């Protein structure tokens, strides 16, 4: 192929990718502005708002009480209790302290505040990934930023008011630090991403297998600091209760009883050698944990 034609095709491909990213980003922005004029009952954010309310009004001991979570979530959503599906909250205590100020706002303005916070985190994520990349040079930053900005899961995180960006931004920083040989900083930033600990349990194992002791030390130091902050804000009892509960997925079955997870469409049981669906409804079950 003619080198000039090949270079031109490459430039056209980059231009198309940039246009697709920007177009997708603009579409999601317009969609979001239309969405916020509704009742905001769809986003998972009500789960975080309920946790903030529980902490401010009832203290740390109430945050991980499933029955109280259901009660507050019902008050927020206004749904029929017989049909309501509770979304259990199992984020770490220190993350609850981070979002606790949202309880001082009404639900709509708290959602706006969380969305603004997520947008700032998304901008920080783009800057970290683009500025620290070893392959993005020159005008390539625009292509990368457009593609990241138009990425659908990123939009869903902002729309739903989820906590994924609180995980992704420190992980991106940890990746950049690791690539530059700053292993202690990489470990410390990895620990900051533990707002979803079930996703990152193998991080210290990675440090051990790589014999990255500085990374492991940074990870342990930040983890101890987060633990101290959690105990200071919650007390020993609720923190220990959280640590014992986070390892076992749970659902609500009756007032405050925690049982094994159930399929969202029913509890499959074996009867007479075959699996059938339980005809009874599951009033308080929900598969994913926010």
Supply database-style keywords.
flat; 290 residues; two-stranded antiparallel sheet; 13 helices; disordered C terminus; single chain; mainly alpha
Quick take:
This protein is mainly alpha-helical and 290 residues long. Helix content is 62%, strand content 3%.
What would you note in describing this structure?
The protein is mainly alpha-helical. It has a domain at 163-235. 62% of the residues lie in helices and 3% in strands. The chain is built from 13 helices and 4 strands. The chain has helices spanning 3-35, 45-58, 60-63, 66-77, 93-99, 107-131, 140-149, 152-160, 164-179, 183-192, 203-209, 213-234, 236-245; strands at residues 251-252, 258-259, 269-271, 274-276. It has a two-stranded antiparallel sheet with strand order 1-2. Strand 1 (251-252) and strand 2 form a beta hairpin. Helix 1 packs parallel to helix 7, helix 2 (45-58) crosses helix 4 and helix 9 packs antiparallel against helix 10 (183-192). The longest helix has 33 residues, at 3-35. It starts with a helix and ends in a 14-residue tail after the last strand.
């Amino acid at each position: 192929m003619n080198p000039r034609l090949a270079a031109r095709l490459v430039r056209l491909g980059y231009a198309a990718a940039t246009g697709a990213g920007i177009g997708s980003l603009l579409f999601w922005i317009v969609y979001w502005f239309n969405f916020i004029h509704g009742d905001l009952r769809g986003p998972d954010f009500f789960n975080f708002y309920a946790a903030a309310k529980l902490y401010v009004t009832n203290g740390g001991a109430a945050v991980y009480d499933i029955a109280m979570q259901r009660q507050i979530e019902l008050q927020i959503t206004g749904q029929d209790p017989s049909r309501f599906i509770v979304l259990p909250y199992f984020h770490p205590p220190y993350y609850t302290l981070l979002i606790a100020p949202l309880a001082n706002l009404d639900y709509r303005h708290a959602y706006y505040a969380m969305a603004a916070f997520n947008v700032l985190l998304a901008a920080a994520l783009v800057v970290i990934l683009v500025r620290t990349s070893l392959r993005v040079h020159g005008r390539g930053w625009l292509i990368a930023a457009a593609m990241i900005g138009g990425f659908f899961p990123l939009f869903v995180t902002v729309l739903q008011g989820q906590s994924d960006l609180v995980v992704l931004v420190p992980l991106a920083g940890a990746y950049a630090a690791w690539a530059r040989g700053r292993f202690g900083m990489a470990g410390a930033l990895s620990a900051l991403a533990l707002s979803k600990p079930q996703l990152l349990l193998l991080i210290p194992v990675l440090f051990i297998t790589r014999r990255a002791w500085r990374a492991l030390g940074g990870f342990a130091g930040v983890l101890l600091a987060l633990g101290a902050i959690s105990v200071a804000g919650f007390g020993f009892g609720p923190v220990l209760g959280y640590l014992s509960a986070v390892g076992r997925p749970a659902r609500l079955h009756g007032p405050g009883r925690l049982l094994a997870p159930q399929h969202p469409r029913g509890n499959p049981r074996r009867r007479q050698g075959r699996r059938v669906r339980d005809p009874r409804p599951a009033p308080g079950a929900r598969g994913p944990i926010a």
